[in-house]
Amino acid sequence: MEIHNYMEDIVKEALNSMLEGTEIKNICKCQKCQYDIMAWALNRLPPKYFVSDKGRLYTKLQEVEVQFRADVIKELTNAITLISLKPQH
Length: 89
Ligand SMILES: [Zn+2]
Fold this sequence. Notes:
Strand order of the largest sheet: 1-2
Number of helices: 3
Mean pLDDT: 87
Bound molecules: zinc ion
Order of helices and strands: EHHEH
Distance between the termini: 37 Å
Low-confidence stretches: none
Largest sheet: 2 strands, antiparallel
């Protein structure tokens, strides 16, 4: 058993699909920038901690995703704009 912040998984997944999308160009996609983007967004999103129980992990992730996806996309879009203007390296 462990405690896990599902918001991290959702942010990571949403960022990956946004970076793969064609609408985002001219942004550095290195590990450092991806982590900077995730950290920025996660600091502005509510943490969603659950005790993880392997069988139910996927269901829980989907529930949280449905509730927060719009907020996650909004914060990631802000983060990407900021980080791409000023990469921290
Ligand atoms: Zn970079």
